[in-house]
Amino acid sequence: MNLRGWLDVFDRQVFNGPPENTRESVIAASKALSKGDWKRAVELLHKLQIWVHLPNSEAVKAMLKRKLQEEAMRTYLFSFSSAYDSISIDQLTRLFELPPRTCHSIVSAMMIAEELHASWDQSTNSIVMHRVEMARMTRQSREYTEYS
Known about the structure:
The chain is built from seven helices and three strands. The chain is mostly helical. The chain has one domain (3-147): Arc Repressor Mutant, subunit A (Orthogonal Bundle), CATH 1.10.10.10. Strands 1-3-2 form a three-stranded antiparallel β-sheet. Helix 2 packs antiparallel against helix 3. The protein starts with a helix and ends with a helix.
C-alpha cells in the first residue's frame, strides 16, 4: 500500500493514538505537514530510530527540517491562501522560521508556476491574493474530494 492509502486508513480511524512505529510516525508527520505544522512533523521524524544507523545523521536531520519548513509553507499557502486578502513576508518568516529571502523565493516560484494567484506589494513587502473564480467542474471536483 502506498502513502496515500495509509493516509486514507488513518483518516477513517475514529481514534488515532500516538505513533507506535515508523510507518505511523511518517503518517502522523504527513498529517501535521498537511496542516502546516512543520514543528510537529520535525519532532515526529527526528524521534525515529533510523537516525542512529546513518553516518552524518545530524546534517541529514538539519536538511530534512529545512525541507519540511519549506514544504509546510507551500502547503499552508495552497490550503489557506483563500482565507487571506494579503499576508506579509514577515508573518511567513515567523510562522515557518525561514529567512525572508527563502520565503520570497518560494512564493515567487509558486506565482510563476501559477500555483498561487497573487502578486507582490513591494511597498509593504507583502503578498496580495487574487480571487480567482473556479470553473464549475473544478469547484464540483474540489467539493467532491473534500466530502468523500
